[in-house]
Write a structure and sequence with these properties.
single chain; alpha/beta; six-stranded parallel β-sheet; 7 helices; 15% strand
Length: 228
């Protein structure tokens, strides 16, 4: 018989087995947390995401959340659809202005200015577009919409997966918000990849709320431009 098979089980063996079970349970719990956060954020946005302009109430301002204009050398479908949705929202009269919030944190990369140029090309008057250059993260964009740009109610424009997270953040910050949902990218691979990444982003959003994480840059109050 193999010596190991004949060895008596010691208290140390029991302790090792117990810690292995605890470690396994901890791994399972850790894997489940992102899924719970994902479900919670989806549930919190129920009834507040709209794809039909006729079913969304009027608000003073649309918050257009930024993303890169191009991805891997090609036009980013998520970006294009957000521009189309924001332009449609404005031209329908549902909002009186657009706050384009995005990342401008490195040389040669300027989401807000890109969005402004494309909104103007889509028929939105330049004078009713306000730029937020410090929307480095979704939470930053929403905190700044409230604290810097003085908004209490607005319509968020992005894809559903992103809009739901933004609505959760807005709700936790006491900001009244609904969302006009932009269409997804035409690329199924892009949609799947972004959806997986979104689960992790939602976990971080819940953590940020728990610690009340503040924007990278807040700054002084600014006015938004809106038509009468």
């Amino acid at each position: 018989m193999h010596p190991f098979l004949s060895r008596a089980v010691t208290p140390l063996d029991h302790l090792r087995r117990r810690w292995k079970r605890i470690a396994l349970l901890a791994i399972i719990a850790s894997a489940g947390i992102p899924l719970l956060c994902d479900y919670h954020i989806t549930s919190s946005a129920t009834g507040r995401c709209h794809t039909d302009l006729n079913k969304i109430g009027d608000q003073p301002l649309a918050l257009l959340l930024g993303t890169a204009r191009e991805f891997n050398g090609a036009r980013n479908g998520f970006y294009t659809k957000r521009i189309e949705a924001a332009a449609a929202l404005f031209k329908s009269g549902k909002v009186r202005g657009i706050l384009a919030s995005g990342d401008n944190g490195r040389s040669g990369y300027d989401e807000p200015s890109d969005m402004k140029a494309d909104l103007v090309a889509a028929g939105v008057p330049e004078e009713f577009i306000t730029l937020d250059y410090a929307g480095f993260r979704t939470r930053d964009s929403i905190v700044r919409a409230k604290k810097v740009f003085g908004q209490t109610n607005l319509i968020i424009v992005s894809q559903r997966f992103h809009a739901e997270r933004a609505l959760y953040i807005a709700q936790e910050l006491g900001l009244g918000a609904s969302a006009f949902v932009a269409a997804d990218s035409a690329s199924r691979a892009s949609n799947a990849r972004v959806r997986i990444r979104e689960i992790l982003a939602r976990t971080m959003a819940v953590a940020d709320n728990l610690i009340d994480r503040q924007p990278k840059f807040l700054g002084k109050p600014e006015l938004v431009a809106m038509r009468d």
